[in-house]
């Protein structure tokens, strides 16, 4: 009995925090196309977030609104409602970067159309009979979101600590967007996993949907980086590359996560004792949000309105 209990996910109580959406806004007028100077590959690899997240996080919100009636724990319900608010704001903030990219000669529409199809059609609602089949598809999507959130929290923790971006002179507005978003991902990193455990918790489903999510993320990210590099109007044909070797090299340089850190994150998620609160630091996330130009401006506007 004690061994079984020890393997169960053990949340760190001190890492829990009530969640709230911050109505942030950003001005992109002064942000260059290569916002990480002299490094179009790292710039565009991170820029893939702007292509994936608007549709992906709208999908999160859509699925979670469907699962709300299944939640029997009031604190978890409050967490999910806070999560929905934060994810909706993330989607809007990244969506607002896309017109800026178009103005700089890089139209992301061909790629975002494919991403929209993925989330709205392939992973969208299906015409299923009420009962077991409809519930199965809902639980599959809840589990996929939990797996994706493992990696968004991983990326959030990385960008909060990626000092090389500062040393390389990254555009401060873009860096604030990434770190505001990353801090909120760390803040709510346990919600998707807790919801999955609450409504299902099947370990085989966790493993299966992790494999689906991880494979899709790697494929979409490489495809997105390659799309940016091939369509960047400032790069010649010979520079249009986006390979795993490039990713590995940028990771070693500190401008992207390291390959090793990505690989080590896999067994942690697949461990039966895994819980997201065991990773990252809520205190660090909250400290950044207390200093973020966008988040503090949003707080001031909210207090002024009150």
What structural category characterises the helix and strand content?
A: mainly alpha
User: Radius of gyration, Cα only, in angstroms?
Assistant: 19 Å
Number of beta-strand segments? 0
The helical percent reads 55-70%
Shape: globular
- Flag low-confidence runs: 1-6
Task: Give the CA-CA distance, first to last residue.
Answer: 52 Å
Give the SSE order as H and E letters. Answer: HHHHHHHHHHHHHH
How much strand content do the residues show? Answer: under 5%
Largest beta-sheet details: none
Number of helices: 14
Mean pLDDT, nearest integer? 93
How does this model look, in words?
By secondary structure, the protein is mainly α. It contains 14 helices and no strands. Helix 2 runs antiparallel to helix 10 and helix 8 (172-187) packs antiparallel against helix 13. It starts with a helix and ends with a helix. 35% of the residues are buried.
